[in-house]
Specification:
Structural class: alpha+beta
Largest sheet: 5 strands, mixed
Order of helices and strands: HEHEHHEEEEEHEHEEEEHEEEE
Number of strands: 16
Number of helices: 7
Oligomer: single chain
Strand content: 25-35%
């Protein structure tokens, strides 16, 4: 583990993180126009994120989508829905029943799209004040799959990224949630361009050189389940009862490398380097784009 290394290496890591921050700053560049492919490649080479304000503002989706529009388009079509007691899908959670810390995945169900969206909207507006959080979060190219009805209303690709990287996107995903949906600290091995269509999203970003700060550990994989439905064998879920959840370890056992440190709770689960981290924070509004470099 990184925390067990000798003093010279410890000092080298401290200097490496600090030097990177001094050279690159701790803010995200904001562009008012989409970059050229060459400009984008320069950001890729530096492995640095940027925001394009209004980069997707002319997309039909940004101009047209709202709750009623989406319900009209998808109606009762079944979609995959992730459900958690606190909006914490794919996150590090300590099981109060046995004291073990797990990497916990959400309970997944299929339900009519309009029912899912009504729940998400009502919870955001306060009509649903307790209960579980629902989030559409599949990462299986779902905008060209279960949401393909909507695909024509976004750009087929991001031209400057396609030209620079010499390929079409591997996946195009649509995620739908409300303010209670939280994505835990993680990293992807891909170059990602995130486009905000409706609402607002807050990002907390760490560069890959701060890996030593996140206190990464191999955790046993588990999945959320509801106690009453497990005991009775029934399919109906009681989403209003926050005590009706349990964490079930996956079988066969699987270990997942996870960041256990959270920059929003900096005094918990720290490594000896966590205090060196200087997270970058950015808010996206409708029509904004965010380039997320690989391993951020």
């Amino acid at each position: 583990m990184i925390d067990d290394i000798n003093p010279p290496v410890n000092q080298a890591i401290n200097e490496y993180i600090s030097s990177y921050q001094e050279l690159n700053g701790t803010t995200v560049d904001e562009l008012q126009n989409e970059p050229t492919p060459l400009e984008f490649l320069r950001y890729c080479a530096k492995n640095r994120p940027f925001v394009v304000r209004g980069g997707a503002s002319k997309w039909p989706a940004v101009q047209s989508w709202n709750a009623e529009y989406l319900k009209q388009a998808l109606g009762k079509q079944l979609v995959n829905v992730a459900i958690t007691p606190h909006g914490n899908a794919d996150s590090v959670v300590t099981n109060t029943e046995n004291g073990t810390t797990y990497f916990v995945k959400p309970l997944e169900v299929e339900e009519p799209f309009e029912d899912f969206l009504n729940y998400v909207k009502d919870q955001e507006q306060g009509a649903v004040t307790t209960g579980a959080v629902k989030y559409a979060q599949t990462q299986n190219d779902n905008l060209r799959g279960e949401y393909s009805t909507l695909y024509k209303e976004v750009e087929e690709d991001i031209a400057w990224a396609r030209i620079a990287l010499g390929q079409q996107p591997d996946a195009v995903n649509l995620w739908i949630g409300n303010a209670r949906s939280i994505t835990s600290l993680h990293r992807d091995n891909y170059e990602n361009v995130y486009c905000q269509i409706v609402g607002r999203k807050h990002f907390v970003l760490l560069p890959s050189v701060e890996t030593a700060c996140i206190n990464e550990k191999p955790l046993t994989a588990a999945t959320y389940a509801q106690k009453t439905s497990m005991a009775s064998g029934r399919e109906a879920l009681d989403l209003g009862d926050e005590t009706d959840w349990r964490i079930v370890q996956d079988i066969p056992e699987e270990k997942v490398p996870c960041a256990t440190w959270d920059p929003d709770e900096p005094n918990r689960h720290c490594s000896r380097y966590s205090h060196l981290s200087k997270p970058l924070r950015v808010d996206l509004n409708p029509g904004d784009m965010l380039y997320l470099p690989a391993l951020w």
